[in-house]
Design goal:
Low-confidence stretches: none
Helix content: under 10%
Distance between the termini: 40 Å
Number of helices: 1
Structural class: mainly beta
Shape: globular
Number of strands: 10
Strand content: 25-35%
């Protein structure tokens, strides 16, 4: 498997350069460069001290980490966060504390999100009068029911 080369610039002396925890991982952890206390249901933008040059034809998707989500309630206000290939600013995490009672204390170096780089297509929309029919049709938001049986 070939590796995608993604240029990365370190913007802060306490930034942590991401790497895979295990061979074959799709995502790399992004770490905080600042100390933050997120109160219950509070949102805050948290810096990573990193900037990337994602190649054209790819995009970065910032996702919550499953462990901190289930243990602490740490999630993202805009999950997934989207990093376009032409963005060159600092990667920042729109963190939210979903725990109704307990504050989350984040320290510099703490893993707060994960980044996945994926190939994306640029759509060319074609305006039409009628769309093709499908079995699902216009059914959305719960149209397939709740139970698998």
């Amino acid at each position: 498997m070939t590796m995608l080369s993604v240029p990365m610039k370190v913007l802060s002396e306490n930034a942590v350069v991401p790497k895979n925890a295990y061979d074959g991982d799709a995502g790399v952890d992004l770490c905080s460069t600042e100390e933050v206390v997120l109160q219950p249901f509070q949102r805050q933008l948290i810096g990573t001290g990193l900037a990337v040059a994602i190649p054209r034809g790819y995009a970065g998707f910032v996702l919550p980490r499953s462990g901190t989500a289930i243990r602490q309630g740490l999630s993202l206000a805009n999950t997934p966060g989207l990093i376009d290939s032409n963005y060159r600013g600092e990667l920042k995490i729109a963190a939210v504390n979903l725990d109704p009672e307990t504050p989350i204390h984040i320290m510099p170096g703490d893993r707060i999100a994960q980044l996945v780089i994926m190939g994306v297509e640029s759509p060319a929309f074609e305006l039409v009068e009628v769309l093709d029919d499908t079995e699902r049709g216009e059914g959305g938001f719960g149209s397939s029911g709740v139970s698998a049986s």
